[in-house]
Predict the 3D structure of the following.
Amino acid sequence: MGEQGSGGSKKTAKTTKKAAPAKKTVSAKKAAPAKKAASAKKVASAKKVAPAKKVVATGKAVAVKKAAPAKKVAVKPPRDESRTALVRRARRINRELAEVFPYAHPELDFENPFQLLVATVLSAQTTDLRVNQTTPALFAKYPTPEELAAANPEEVEEILRPCGFFRMKTKSVMGLSKALAEDFGGEVPGRLEDLVKLPGVGRKTAFVVLGNAFGRPGITVDTHFQRLVRRWQWTDETDPDRIEAAVGALFPKSEWTDLSHHVIWHGRRICHARKPACGACPIAPLCPAYGEGETDPEKAKKLLKYEKGGFPGQRLKPPQAYLDAGGRPAPPLGAA
């Protein structure tokens, strides 16, 4: 075709010239309806496609809504994790937390077993900070079980009012004080079976006292401990006694008290119930629930509480090791 075009005659040229407008005329006449047809088809197809896109978009929206709980399911630990692997992971988490919180301690102010027992009973349904701000006035007026047992209930209620449930708590602390005075010579017993017989004292309270006032190992299964060990998939149990048994089986008995402190401290400062600071978590690689909270490091830092976030701790009179590590004591009740 290229060779004929370059060496053709004049007739060919004329024919070509005549053919040119003919092609334009034909193409012009036919092209118009063709374009209209094409545009008509596009409009028709566009009209048909429009609802299809809406359906797809709606389908995606529904899928996103359903995907939210699926993420929570996905963070469960691998089903093939053996018992040995679970023990190793749990113990490594405890070691890592021990490095982060080497000064972890009970966050209730106390000077003797009696004060710790009363403070622990008062800590139900409130913060340790609120208890620590309340007990100085209580112990200043009633320093012994005998004196608290013989107190005017209304006066005790007024002191304990900031702790919440003050009437019920007044009955508990006065009741256990009376039992101590009458059955144990005014001394707090150092045995689990004796402690749990006291009014308002359960296994959790008993283990707090045994572990921190008598140096006897025990696991404190409070609300922070319960949710963290389930979040880490150490156990699926929900009953506190069953959780205590399941977790206790993963660790040597000698580590139980410190383990409780490490877990509770981590739950209060970093691994919060609603917004865990995953991006600032030192055990993130070991946590099957990583991603449930904020993963951005800078945003996660803003979620940290207590001394990790630059705020004072729970105790008005914390141990010296805590102060040496940069911790700050809490303000007394009524302080600005």
